[in-house]
């Protein structure tokens, strides 16, 4: 049983508190710290938890610290946690700058502590449905659209929303990015509220990503195209669709009713549409439990600090391209 404390009890922080309280076989929730005394009192009463008087006091009382604060504070807080030799879960994005992320990586290795980054879409049931499928996408298209919410506008939409899909793409493509093209526009914020990026990889894969926080409807969809399949994921509705073409005499041809004949230049193929079963999970609870497992067994977290760093680095390449372009904010 790992003792854990939470830093930050805003909207997402409260969700983390609820999820940790559900993970009774994994964590002992010791308490939290929030710099707002009125918020701290309210949360302490709501969750029947101890509100610590300082960050330092909470760190000393736990094995693991869960940082759910604004991005601009991640580095300062994580630095204190790691220097104290405690494990740390950090909500995405990892830090506000590349240099901060690099310093945390260096220090976490020096202190021998585990760090996981909160790219929660890795634990989305739709994405988990693909775990046993060989994936070698050559074209990826992602749309992540949301209505405007002042919360999160301290950073660009690239760091606020698109970074989720950047992490998903980087986890699936076994190659390094070689070229980035992007544009974006600040509509109601001081930083871009809508952005599009095209990322080319060394193996020939191309990813086209769009993120907006000023849309009339919500959407979180990713489509993957590879040699033998088309895969569509809906992270919002939590479903997946896999479409494959088979030769008529293929030994692995599924023996199911949902097979259709498909006429192609190479002859008649059999089209198979698969809707894999989706297991209902609490993604935030699952990612926190996964982190505990990596601590106990001393294995690499499913979303490591290096993963968070790579997504952050790519996000800043996209932001730099936007700043250089004709749509400069």
What is the rounded Rg? 21 Å
Q: Element order, helices and strands?
A: EHEHEHEHEHEHEHEEEEEEEEHH
Quick one: biggest sheet? 9 strands, mixed
Which consecutive residue ranges, at least 5 long each, have pLDDT under 50? none
What is the CA-CA span between the terminal residues?
Answer: 48 Å
Main structural class? alpha/beta
- Helical element count? 9
Number of strands: 15
Oligomeric composition of the shown chains:
single chain
Shape: globular
Mean pLDDT: 93
Question: What is the beta-strand fraction?
Answer: 25-35%
Q: Order of strands across the biggest sheet?
A: 8-9-10-7-11-12-13-15-14
Relative helix content? 25-40%
Could you characterize what this model shows?
Helix 4 runs parallel beside helix 5 (98-111), helix 5 (98-111) packs antiparallel against helix 9 (305-324) and helix 7 (157-172) packs across helix 9 (305-324). The mean pLDDT is 93. The longest helix has 20 residues, at 305-324. Strands 8-9-10-7-11-12-13-15-14 form a 9-stranded mixed beta sheet. It has 9 helices and 15 strands. It is of the alpha/beta class and 329 residues long. Helices cover 33% and strands 29% of the residues. It starts with a strand and ends in a 5-residue tail after the last helix. Helix 5 links the parallel strand 5 and strand 6 (115-118).
């Amino acid at each position: 049983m790992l003792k854990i404390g939470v830093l930050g009890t805003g909207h997402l922080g409260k969700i983390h508190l609820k999820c940790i309280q559900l993970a009774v076989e994994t964590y002992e929730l010791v308490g939290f710290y929030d710099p707002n005394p009125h918020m701290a009192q309210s949360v302490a009463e709501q969750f029947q938890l101890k509100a610590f008087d300082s960050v330092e006091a909470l760190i000393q009382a736990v094995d693991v610290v869960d940082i759910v604060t604004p991005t601009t504070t991640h580095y300062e807080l994580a630095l204190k946690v790691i220097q104290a030799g405690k494990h740390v879960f950090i909500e995405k994005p990892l830090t506000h700058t590349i240099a901060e992320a690099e310093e945390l990586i260096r220090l976490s290795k020096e202190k021998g502590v585990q760090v996981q980054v909160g790219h929660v879409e890795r634990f989305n049931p739709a994405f988990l449905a693909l775990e046993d499928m060989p994936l070698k996408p050559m074209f990826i298209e992602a749309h992540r659209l949301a209505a405007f919410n002042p919360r999160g506008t301290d950073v660009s939409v690239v760091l606020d929303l698109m970074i989720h899909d950047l992490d998903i793409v980087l986890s699936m493509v076994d190659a390094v990015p070689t070229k980035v093209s992007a544009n974006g526009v600040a509509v109601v914020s001081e930083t871009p509220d809508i952005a599009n990026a095209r990322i080319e990889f060394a193996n020939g894969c191309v990813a086209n990503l769009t993120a907006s926080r000023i849309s009339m409807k919500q959407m979180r969809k990713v489509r993957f195209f590879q040699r033998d399949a088309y895969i569509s994921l809906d992270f919002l509705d939590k479903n997946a669709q896999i479409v494959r073409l088979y030769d008529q005499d293929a030994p692995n041809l599924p023996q199911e009713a949902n097979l259709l004949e498909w006429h192609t230049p190479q002859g008649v193929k059999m089209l198979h549409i698969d809707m894999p079963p989706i297991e209902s999970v609490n993604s935030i609870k699952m990612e926190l439990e996964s982190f505990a497992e990596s601590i106990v067994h001393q294995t690499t977290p499913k979303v490591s600090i290096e993963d968070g760093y790579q997504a952050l680095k790519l996000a800043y390449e996209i932001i730099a391209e936007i700043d250089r372009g004709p749509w400069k904010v």
